[in-house]
Amino acid sequence: MVAVLLVIALVAGSPAGAGATGAKVAVNGSDTSPGQLQQAATPRDNTFRDPRLVYPDPRTQYPDPRQLYPDPRQKFLDRRQDPNADHRPVTPAVPIVIITQPVYVAAPQACVVPGYWAYAWVPQSDVSSVWVPGYYNYDALWVDGHYESRAYSGGYYQPYWVPERAC
Predict the structure, then answer these.
(1) Hey, is 29 helix, strand or coil?
(2) pLDDT score recorded for residue 69
(3) Under DSSP, is residue 160 helix (H, G, I), strand (E, B) or coil?
(4) What is the per-residue pLDDT for 111?
(5) Residues near 113 by Cβ (< 8 Å), separated by ≥ 6?
(6) Per-residue confidence at 155, pLDDT binned at 50, 70, 90?
(7) Half-sphere exposure of 29 (CA within 13 A, CB side)
(8) Which of 29, 33, 74, 135 has the largest CB neighbor count within 10 A?
């Protein structure tokens, strides 16, 4: 029994060509066997090499800058990282009761004419004496110069406040 397993292990472990097993895999349009790596030609000596060996992964050459310079604001977001953190659950011990107060809004009347300034004309009259020089009247008679009374009318605008009223 041990001999049979040994023979199976030797046959399964021995490399066989792609034509011997009949299994081929298409990679990038070319036929390669599952164990064979696709190779690239270099311009110097036209020999085929593994592209993973020619061009190494840059991620392995340079460290992640996020690891080198962590954000100080992110320092204690995880409570397990802060040694001084209180590790109790963040729940209030006493329930908080909020009582709202009623709000009363007094609306003004729908139609109100606001107060305003208005102006009223206050008439004034004045009488004064005026010198009238001598002249000839319509009958061609001479009238001597004299003083005459004349009335003048005038006035001014007086401002007054009109209070607001309902329509």
Answers:
(1) coil
(2) 75
(3) strand
(4) 84
(5) 164, 165, 166, 167
(6) very high
(7) 0
(8) 33
